[in-house]
Design a protein that fits this description.
The complex is a heterodimer. By secondary structure, chain A is an all-alpha fold. Chain A is built from two helices and no strands. Chain A starts with 5 loop residues before the first helix and ends with a helix. Classes of the chains: A mainly alpha, B mainly alpha.
């Protein structure tokens, strides 16, 4: 076990900003990317069904 | 489920690879694979992060800062491999006028660019505490930055030309010329005196890393792969519908309301 407490875990021996900044920015980008890709697909579907009605 | 997933005629079995070259087939196949891929990506990421933070020991010289490695290295690998995949499919699409291959190249580009940004950003966040600088114009860092510009250039080019028949070959040409940059990135730490460290893992020598560190790195890499497949397939399905909207199979899809 590497950590004695949750605070210890988040502190990362003083490297918390760098470690969590790396993982956090990667996670943030992935959430945005997945959201955009899914929206693109659902909007394409929506457009199809609208054309269908018209 | 739908008409696209009817069992293949025995005669078509040998042509399986080619059948998925049709956007309609790819659309259906990707749709079936996606739930499993997302699950796989989430499971591997959970396991990889557990190994990276709870099993891998603290590095003797770098302390906890080295844990950035488990996102930095997989992202850097993916940024290069996805570029090669992009160039490969763009070239296939160009050479054989294969619509699906060109669409796949377009679907890969944003994800490749994303992993390049993640590699650069995590690298900056690692460079600051270990080298005392966010950025240096070192061969490895500079060639990786050029990779980002290649991705962005490809995306800008294919979006600037409206007619896909002209946009896709132009994009393929740019992508192919840019391939020369990938070995430059990979071997930069050997060819030049770089501040960036050399490879810790190679095919020809024993890895210079603890066993649990290697396992964490391997699982995190697989997680990034699964994520890349999932998000690229999702994007490809959107691109297919946009490009094929006038085709009969897409019209049929929307009429039957089975296009989820």
């Amino acid at each position: 076990m590497n950590w004695h407490s949750a605070a210890d875990f988040f502190h990362m021996d003083g490297y918390g900003f760098f470690v969590w900044g790396s993982y956090g920015s990667a996670l943030l980008w992935m959430l945005v990317e997945v959201g955009l890709a899914r929206r693109r697909h659902s909007q394409a579907l929506l457009q199809l069904s609208e054309e269908d009605v018209a | 489920m739908d008409m696209l997933s009817s069992p293949p005629h025995p005669m078509t079995r040998t042509h399986r690879f080619y059948t998925y070259a049709a956007p309609s087939r790819f659309y259906a196949l990707a749709g079936r694979l996606l739930p499993g891929l997302w699950l796989l990506a989430a499971g591997l990421a959970a396991l990889g992060l557990y190994l990276a933070f709870f099993k891998a020991p603290t590095d003797a010289t770098q302390g906890q800062a080295y844990r950035i490695l488990f996102i930095h290295v997989p992202a850097a690998w993916l940024s290069m491999l996805l570029y090669l995949a992009l160039a490969f499919w763009a070239a296939i699409g160009w050479a054989f006028k294969a619509r699906m291959a060109s669409l796949l190249a377009r679907a890969i580009a944003p994800t490749g660019a994303g992993f390049t940004v993640i590699a650069l950003l995590s690298g900056a966040l690692w460079g600051q505490p270990s080298w005392g600088s966010w950025w240096v114009w070192d061969a490895r860092l500079t060639s990786e930055l050029i990779l980002l510009f290649l991705y962005l250039g490809y995306l800008a080019l294919v979006h600037a030309i409206e007619d896909p028949q002209r946009a896709d070959p132009a994009g393929a040409l740019l992508a192919l010329v840019g391939v020369v940059n990938v070995p430059i990135i990979y071997f930069s730490v050997r060819w030049w005196n770089t501040l960036h460290q050399g490879a810790s893992i190679s095919l020809t020598a024993a890895p210079r890393m603890a066993e649990t560190m290697l396992q964490a790195l391997a699982v995190m890499s697989l997680a990034c792969w699964a994520y890349a497949f999932a998000v690229i397939f999702t994007r490809a399905r959107g691109l297919i519908l946009e490009r094929e909207r006038d085709k009969a199979w897409v019209q049929a899809l929307s009429k039957k309301g089975q296009a989820t």
